[in-house]
Design brief:
Helices cover 34% and strands 13% of the residues. The chain has 16 helices and 13 strands.
Length: 473
Amino acid sequence: MSFDSLGLSAELLRAINDQGYTEPTPIQRQAIPLILEGKDVMAGAQTGTGKTAGFTLPLLQRLSDNPIQGSRRPVRALVLTPTRELAAQVGESVATYGRHLPMRSAVIFGGVKINPQIEKLRQGVDILVATPGRLLDHANQKTVNLSEIEILVLDEADRMLDMGFIHDIRKVLALLPKNHARQNLLFSATFSNDIKQLASRLLDHPELIEVARRNTTAELIEQVVHPVDKNRKRELLSHMIGSRNWRQVLVFTRTKHGANRLVQQLDKDGLSAAAIHGNKSQGARTRALAGFKTGEVRILVATDIAARGLDIDQLPHVVNYELPNVPEDYVHRIGRTGRAGNEGEAVSLVCVDEHKLLRDIERLMKREIPSKVLEGYEPDPSIKAEPIQNGRNNGKGRPQPQRHTEGRHRSRTKPSAKKSADAQQETKSGNTTQKNTRRKPAGSQAKKPQPQRSRSGGGDEWGSLFGGSARSK
């Protein structure tokens, strides 16, 4: 099957041809016709299979088929993403495929000045790609109008929930037009059974697309576990990179502090490295990623905030320096390699403390990851496992969603007075959990705890979240 059999316009086919693509991927073959028909879609596909183009192409087609008359240019399509990097990637895809169409698009996220974004919005845009926090900042300042949205896309919907964006999403949806035939699309690399069940109730007769078994990884990714003592991980990592002459390696740690520390250690080993995480400014994150893509930076050390949205052509190696606390994040981490039909290698350095995390990952993927002890780095059998402190864990072995304000503008709060929510979230998921020991004034009332989204339920909360958005056929 070729792209010209999917009902796309000549302008879109020309843009596709400019990129050198000839055949649609499985997710594109299934999603594009359904979206062109105006149906609600919930699509899951393993990462790296072209799902961004799977909704970008038909979105552009639908808007161009029904142009707004006159000089008005309201925002007609909204794409919500959990991270800045993913927003930038989606925005680039919109610009690439819409280059031959009279469409305007904008990408807005936090970590950068808001005034240039305001000026862009004033000029008028058809398609807006945004992180929830910064979008709400614009809404509060009356610099964006969402009352004429025709298509809503939640990209990486599961990740947005895990990052605690449910309340922001509810606020955004309240700004969308009421009693309007809006098309809703949910795209993600993975979907929990809970989200599938809820989405089937909340979307209007959605079409479910799964091109591969959920929570699987690309077949072209060679996965291996190297058991090693925790205090020898950095030594082993440097040895592998140097002895195997790896020129481009994406390394994942659990915490921001751990990422910074590892970069310093790698630099001392003579290996050029840079860190990318939520505490870095957007400019620093962009420079680090650009240097990594050009080869100026050999090793990019990232936290899980970068597991979604990093699109690096033909990335050969991903290393889990530390296993993630959430098994699904493993799938997204290693999905940065083995993309678009290219082969990739995913290496996990696992110490005795992480055996349970490894079992959880293997249980999720329903497969055992091959393990190989490297000579000279044999684990010491006398070392006993120590618990991994994790603020996202409720003590019952199940991660809890955390409030994450990726992309949220915080100019109203002095930096010295309050940590950013982004910093608090990842600090909690690190090696220590900081407690607020400041004594409350006498007679003050304790603040009511906010309800948490349960992974085994939450139907009422989700029902109110999408209430009124279902379309009548």
